[in-house]
Amino acid sequence: MASTDSGSSVSAPHRSGDLFHAGLAVALLLGVWSVGGLEVTTGKVSLIEAVNGSTVLLPCNYHSCIGIKNLFFKWTFRNNGSEQALCEGNIPAEKIEPTYSISHDRVTFVGSSTTSNISILLWNITFEDEGQYICFARNPKEKNRNHSAVLTLRVVDQMKEVDNTLTVLIVSVLGGVIGLVVIIMVIKALVVHFLLKDDEKNKECLVTSSGNDNTENGLSGAKADNKGTPKA
Ligand SMILES: *[C@@H]1O[C@H](CO)[C@@H](O)[C@H](O)[C@H]1NC(C)=O
Ligand SMILES: *[C@@H]1O[C@H](CO)[C@@H](O)[C@H](O)[C@H]1NC(C)=O
Ligand SMILES: *[C@@H]1O[C@H](CO)[C@@H](O)[C@H](O)[C@H]1NC(C)=O
Ligand SMILES: *[C@@H]1O[C@H](CO)[C@@H](O)[C@H](O)[C@H]1NC(C)=O
Ligand SMILES: *[C@@H]1O[C@H](CO)[C@@H](O)[C@H](O)[C@H]1NC(C)=O
């Protein structure tokens, strides 16, 4: 998956002097070699999230169709550009268990050559263990080409995270409900306000008009009628 193919472009031009043909050869060879050559993989995972204090498996497997001999492998931890060796070893031949050395007090090797497994365990992780873990392998049978796969470890504080998501959830749901209620109340208040205003206007209109009607129809109404007819 994440095997590097550097180095092939250096060796390929021997087969053809012409640069274009060399390029073609490289392209073809890359296809063939990636099938036949060594492959180092972390499986489907490239990011591991784990709770601080827990122990994580850093998986790595190798695969080679042309077989291995004195396969060299190495685990390194990369954080902020600095690299730290964790474990390195040698597998003399297929199915022969590796010899290895460990240079980190919380790392144990759990791989097995019967399953082409070169995984390690990192015990009791802390937040300082966050970073990239590189599984590197080199098979002398393949002109020492380098292969590596990278795993990223993220350390989380589970209790806090659960609390946070819960509170965030509760707050957002509550906030949403409250917001909705507020909006509904505001709309209701506005509607009521305008309806009342309209009612009041209508009432006022009715009152004034009826008042006018009354005055017109009343005693003063006769005066108004009297005043109105000369104008018209
Ligand atoms: C492989 O990696 C080693 C360091 O580990 C480096 O010295 C060497 O040049 C690399 N080889 C290729 C072909 O990239
Ligand atoms: C995780 O880290 C926090 C803060 O650093 C600490 O309080 C807590 O005890 C740790 N949890 C575990 C399981 O180590
Ligand atoms: C790595 O960098 C981050 C910030 O970029 C810093 O918080 C952290 O302490 C650094 N870790 C180490 C091991 O230098
Ligand atoms: C991990 O932590 C436990 C409990 O604190 C301790 O007993 C154990 O020795 C630790 N393991 C390593 C490899 O440091
Ligand atoms: C590699 O070995 C470890 C430890 O035995 C195991 O947990 C893991 O599942 C193995 N990985 C594969 C891909 O077989």
Question: Please, could you describe this protein's structure?
Answer:
41% of the residues lie in helices and 29% in strands. It has 232 residues and is α+β, with helices and mostly antiparallel strands. Among the domains are: 39-156, Immunoglobulins (Immunoglobulin-like), CATH 2.60.40; 167-201. A six-stranded mixed beta sheet has the order 2-11-10-5-6-7, with no helix packed on it. Strands 3-9-8 form a three-stranded antiparallel beta sheet, with no helix packed on it. Strand 10 (131-138) and strand 11 form a beta hairpin. Helix 3 crosses helix 4 (219-231). The longest helix has 60 residues, at 158-217. The radius of gyration is 41 Å and the shape is elongated. The termini are far apart. Residues 1-17, 28-35 and 205-232 have low confidence and may be disordered. Residues 43-152 form the Ig-like domain. One of its GO terms (cellular component) is voltage-gated sodium channel complex.
